[in-house]
Amino acid sequence: MTLVRERRRQQALKLSLPPQIPAADLWQPAKLPALSFAIQPQSPDVESFSKLEKLAVLGHGNGATIYKVWHCQTASIYALKVLRVDQHTTDVWQQAGQEAEILKRVDSPLIVKCHAVLNSGCIDSDNAGELYFLMEYMEGGSLQDILCIHRKLPEEAISRVARRVLEGLCYLHSTKIVHRDIKPSNLLINSKGELKIADFGVSQVVASTCDPHVSYLGTCAYMSPERFDPERWDGDKEGGFAGDVWSLGIVLLECHVGHFPLISPGETPDWATLMCAICFSDRLEIPETASPEFKSFVSRCLEKDWRARGTVDELLRHPFVNKSSGTKGWFG
After folding, report:
1. Fewest CB within a 10 Å sphere: which of 122, 140, 163, 249?
2. What region holds the Protein kinase domain (predicted)?
3. Domains 13-136 and 143-322 share a fold
């Protein structure tokens, strides 16, 4: 009886993707508006998305659902991001195209790998279609998952997180890509304990998410002062790279104190509260229990004036990110 129920469950989870799309047409947009985001498969065992089956829902965010999927011909496991796109919503379509273009450009062990992007090839009665991003599966979940379990991390682990993210940002910034959404849920971990940067879905539209109807314990919560209020803080004229450093500082401080550090535990992270905390409050207080190296590092990340903030190159040379060098620990 258990076997029958399991078979029915697997059948119910079958992914409703276009059946048996010819290999020659698989990577080209069909009836949806054309976008120059076709990514040729970088893994030879991925021939057809019709061979994928859902195993579980990994999460939701930014209008997408992420599934753990199984390729039945090769028994390979992937993450599949399914983004529903209204063809008449220009900004969403442009955002999806931007994400796909970025994923096509990046190739680094510090960034979650994208194997392919395609669309469903059809539009429903609501004039919407779906985009599929076939991604590397990160077995260890996210840094957010780690924090939910451990709440706080030891400084050695935080040091390793800092180094990995800085190395990833160094790569991205060298290719003129600003992530704009560094936060615990976008830092994923594989079975080897290696941390990688994921999710470029809001890289170009972060500012438009700041309205009172959006949950702020997300993108806006980790946003730098010059992004949150560019007029007051003389928005970054150098492309926004300093904003990624601010976000990293907030993430690391959260790892140390065990909660989102800009507001008190239980306080509602609405627009006004975050605006005051990010743009008007004095320098953030770092717990006395922190080491001098950690205090110095986070202080360099969280300079409110982006021109005075530490750069990625400078921070990679900081004693804090080198304190655990050569020793084994979390995150590779």
Report:
1. 122
2. 52-321
3. no
Q: Supply 228's token pair.
A: 């949150």
Rounded to the nearest 10 degrees, the angle between the axes of helix 241-257 and helix 292-301 is: 140
Q: HSE (CB half, 13 Å, CA atoms) of 8?
A: 5
Question: What is the residue-averaged pLDDT of the chain?
Answer: 75
**Reported CATH class of domain 143-322:** mainly alpha
Tell me which CATH homologous superfamily contains domain 13-136.
Answer: Phosphorylase Kinase; domain 1 (3.30.200.20)
**H runs (alpha helix) in the chain:** 2-12, 90-105, 143-150, 155-174, 225-228, 241-257, 271-275, 292-301, 312-316, 319-322
| Triad 269, 271, 276: Cα angle to 5° | 85
Using pLDDT thresholds of 50, 70 and 90, give the confidence band for residue 320. very high
Q: Which of 213, 216, 215, 226 is nearest to 274 (CA)?
A: 216
Distance CA 71, CA 51 (A): 6
Q: What are the respective helix, strand and coil percentages of the chain, to the nearest 5?
A: 35, 15, 45
d(CA 155, CA 321): 10
Question: For residues 6 and 116, what is the distance between their CA atoms, to the nearest angstrom?
Answer: 30
Q: Is 98 helix (H, G, I), strand (E, B) or coil?
A: helix
pLDDT, tens digit, for every residue of 187-244? 999 999 999 999 876 443 233 344 433 333 346 889 899 888 888 877 766 668 899 9
d(CA 47, CA 90): 31
Give the start-to-end residue ranges of the domains of the chain.
13-136, 143-322
Question: Cβ(195)–Cβ(161) under 8 Å?
Answer: yes
Number of other residues whose CB lies within 10 A of the CB of residue 155: 20
